[in-house]
Amino acid sequence: MDRAIVFNAEREALTKTYIEERYGITQEGIEIVPRMIVLHHTVIPTFEKTFKAFDSPTLPNWRPEIESVSGLNVSSHFVVDWDGTIYRLMPETIMARHVIGLNHCAIGVENVGGTADLPLTRAQLRSNIWLANYLAEKYPIEYLIGHHEYMQFEGHPLWLEVDENYRTTKNDPGEEFMKKVRKATRKLNFKPLPTSQ
Known about the structure:
5 helices
């Protein structure tokens, strides 16, 4: 289902600035060529609250640890609700801010919940597997990763973050979830993750 977040001139300008300042890329627009899918969980308990967190073009004041890097709000291309409903928040070929160093080539998939009290569901697992297949048919996807694995790309040609101190520790969506998704999508022959350089 399409449920678009606000993508106005302000968000477009902030995205363009992010691409230039974080990645050293000068380009006319804010389009990306997706080569990676990054799976996340929100720790937010509902789709509506997740949508509200991503909707504003500017970063809310409860994210001070990443605000100094850019005023661009975090977002994701897709959100998967508890019941497996897939919401598309923005076009897959426009950059979203969801993973340090790799936004310029990555499609983000957020899963509602993901805490010990609100674990990810089988329906969400099935939808993530479906999305991986769907996106791999449309784009030259090389990697399928969990957000907690993103730092393994430091030193890899796809890694473009210019600030060596800009990192955040992540644990989403977790090893067990990724193991199940990878097992179900092994026929897609995604590349193995690089080891940290």
